[in-house]
Amino acid sequence: MDQSFYVGWGTLTLINAGIAQGKNRSGLNWFLLSIFLGPLATFILVIAEKKH
User: Structural domain of residue 42, as residue ranges?
Assistant: First the structure.
């Protein structure tokens, strides 16, 4: 595959970790989950409620 695919996927995992931390969730867990789920993990994070 093209190298830019891996760069984009890696960037998305970091963005998801940041979104997760902003919603008081584990950034590391969402980072690891995002490696496998990618854009689906982003969608789940966006619709998820913020933890209190």
Answer: 3-47
